[in-house]
């Protein structure tokens, strides 16, 4: 009995010593100044660090698995290692489950485990391959006499040499071949969309799509993203994607083919007091959208450039006393004329097509009493319409050309393309 106790204490001491040395090494790394390094030296430093991250991730997964096998979580009153990781180290549920799954996979896939321990594959790659070690998948492979050791070696080789997307495709191909006659999943069961509205009116969007639905969505977004790449565009790809999604919604609403909502065509609705709408100040939090978002008066004036305006007189108790006739700011015939005149967004360097654009009143019809006329109208895409309502300015010249100025008064000049003679 005493011998076992001594051995256990010795093992704890050895493990503690290794972790302590690791901590000291990390402290030394963190103490190094990086501002004196240049490109090649930084890359030389980064490579071994990434390998070390891979090795450390493998060791964490191996330890999590051993904790699971020995029931270590019970020591702290937890039913599982996933719940222990969430409660004691504040990991998300997804990350906790990933670590548990990775530990189980490394135990069953020795080639992958050796590569991970050597730092040759990433934790992400381990997670991608781990699905082949799931109980149902392993049972199906055993029933079909599949040599899992060969699959382990092949996928590990792919993880070490191929792009991650290719690895995921290889894993998916293996799983599909393992059950070629399985039921075709209903794509609608794989789709979900959650929209969360925040206190400032902004929303977060999270969704899941099946392979075909995802391909349709990506194709639509990418077509808009690639078609709207004006000169000098500094947006990140993520920002371009967000703008493309809004543009996709604009196009669908403008087409007029969406299903009606309670007998009316779907439309963006903003309610705002008239005094706030005509007040030139920013007016934060003055308008309320149909789905409960809060926007500024300035934002409402931007939307009003090309909208239908309805007047509702409210009583002191909030009851409607009078509902005025709807007034369309830009009638259809004027919009067609502006599209013929401008053909695309008039903001310097942008060539967004007319069907992506709003009609902008150059002299604002609310604040400047600008007329709703062909001479006072300009085509602006959603992005640049926002810019113009935040300090930028467009102006038509006598020859019909448009010029654009920044808020500081400097002009945005688009250089003419060079002509190269043969």
Automatic annotation (TrEMBL):
Domain DUF222: 51-342
Protein's recorded name: DUF222 domain-containing protein
Organism domain of life: Bacteria
A Pfam match: DUF222
Organism: Blastococcus goldschmidtiae
InterPro entries (alphabetical): DUF222, HNH_nuc
């Amino acid at each position: 009995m005493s011998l076992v106790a001594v051995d256990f204490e010795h093992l704890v001491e050895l493990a503690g010593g290794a972790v302590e040395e690791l901590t000291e090494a990390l402290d030394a790394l963190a103490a190094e100044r990086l501002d004196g390094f240049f490109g090649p030296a930084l890359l030389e430093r980064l490579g071994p660090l990434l390998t070390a991250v891979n090795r450390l991730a493998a060791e964490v997964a191996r330890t999590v698995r051993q904790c699971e096998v020995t029931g270590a979580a019970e020591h702290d009153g937890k039913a599982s290692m996933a719940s222990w990781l969430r409660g004691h180290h504040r990991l998300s549920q997804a990350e906790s489950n990933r670590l548990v799954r990775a530990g189980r996979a490394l135990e069953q896939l020795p080639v992958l485990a050796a590569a991970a321990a050597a730092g040759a594959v990433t934790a992400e790659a381990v997670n991608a391959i781990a699905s082949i070690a799931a109980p149902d998948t392993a049972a199906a492979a055993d029933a079909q006499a599949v040599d899992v050791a060969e699959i382990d070696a092949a996928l590990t080789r792919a993880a070490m040499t191929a792009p991650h997307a290719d690895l995921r495709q290889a894993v998916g191909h293996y799983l599909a071949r393992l059950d070629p006659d399985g039921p075709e999943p209903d794509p609608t069961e794989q789709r979900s969309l959650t929209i969360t509205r925040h206190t400032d009116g902004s929303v977060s969007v999270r969704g899941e799509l099946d392979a075909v639905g995802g391909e349709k969505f990506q194709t639509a977004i990418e077509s808009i993203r690639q078609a709207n790449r004006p000169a000098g565009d500094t947006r990140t790809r993520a920002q371009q994607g967000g703008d493309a999604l809004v543009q996709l919604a604009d196009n669908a609403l403008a087409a007029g083919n969406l299903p009606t909502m309670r007998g009316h065509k779907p439309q963006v609705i903003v309610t705002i007091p008239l005094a706030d709408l005509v007040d030139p100040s920013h007016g934060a939090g003055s308008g309320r959208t149909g789905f409960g978002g809060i926007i500024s008066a300035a934002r409402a004036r931007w939307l009003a450039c090309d909208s239908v305006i309805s007047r509702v007189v409210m009583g002191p108790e909030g009851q409607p006393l009078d509902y005025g006739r709807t007034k369309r700011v830009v009638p259809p015939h004027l919009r067609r004329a502006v599209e013929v005149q401008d053909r695309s967004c008039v903001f310097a360097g942008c060539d967004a097509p007319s069907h992506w654009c709003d009609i902008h009143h150059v002299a604002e019809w609310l604040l400047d009493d600008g007329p709703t006329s062909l001479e006072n109208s300009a085509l602006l895409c959603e992005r640049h319409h926002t810019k113009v309502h935040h300090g930028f300015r467009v102006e038509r010249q006598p020859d019909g050309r448009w010029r654009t100025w920044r808020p500081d008064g400097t002009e945005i000049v688009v250089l003419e393309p060079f002509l190269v003679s043969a």
